[in-house]
């Protein structure tokens, strides 16, 4: 990396001193709050020599990757932030996530991936010991730009790829949570992410929610399959809205008889922890396997891995002539969309799905509305009046 001391003329006649960074085609600046005064100013030479000496000192630190003197301690001012190196704080924070029983293993892995990306950015900018008190809007904007345009996923070293929009948005969300935690700890005064304009943030990608129609469900039920249990469990979920994580642990004791008939009663859904009770209609009961004397604690479906289920379903979908991208989660979208299309209200369908926010259910209502609009338009085209 090349660092050059440059100056910029000001209207006052003085010149502002800044560092010009250049590496691998990228250029950025850092203004030092140091100035060169005009020659006619008293003691101009002494003042300018002191400013340039300080600028050269800072330049040397930047070349070594040092943001501040590591031996410096916080001052005595009551409002002064503690000097915490960002990378060190991240290490402590992620260790807390790992040890906390409140976070799942997958959540920890997501946080750790975000931390690795931030560290990669600090290395990219040659600022591995950057202080948290220095994190501002410009730093966050640079980090988000690095994530989108420079960083490559290292899971496949032979074929590094840029991250998807969904993954980028996930890392941005985790970054915001971590900075909020730093503010709560008193390490930062405020979260600079909120100073970004909307266009500077990573937008959330609208997820595609493919669902199966009645005819597609019938076609899939009759198509050849490489695993009958997978197909039965998938179709069962199309009429109950259960996730893969819930159906693969579903036991016979979870299917109970109540006054209105059989229901699936799950004490706590794997993802949300919410309790749900789902009535079983004739379509759902059709795909339940025979119990054959199974004990209450035995599993209803002997499931393979999620990836194996998805491969099986994609093959069946092709055989059935379905062009949609079918995965196991398509069953949940199918249940939600068909339930609303059949006249179910948002609140009830949301309860059956175990949603914690009505906005999650609203997405499916929007899909149903698009279908209704298409139907109305087809009527208009038919009569041509």
Automatic annotation (TrEMBL):
Keyword field: DNA recombination, DNA-binding
PROSITE patterns from the entry? TYR_RECOMBINASE
One Gene Ontology biological process: DNA integration
Q: Which domain of life is it from?
A: Bacteria
Q: Which GO terms describe its molecular function?
A: DNA binding
Q: Which InterPro entries match?
A: Arm-DNA-bind_5, DNA_brk_join_enz, Integrase-like_cat_sf, Integrase_catalytic, Integrase_recombinase_N, SAM-like_dom, Tyrosine_recombinase_XerCD
Per the database record, which ranges form the Tyr recombinase domain? 207-377
Query: Which protein family is named in the record?
Result: Belongs to the 'phage' integrase family.
Name under which the protein is recorded = Site-specific integrase
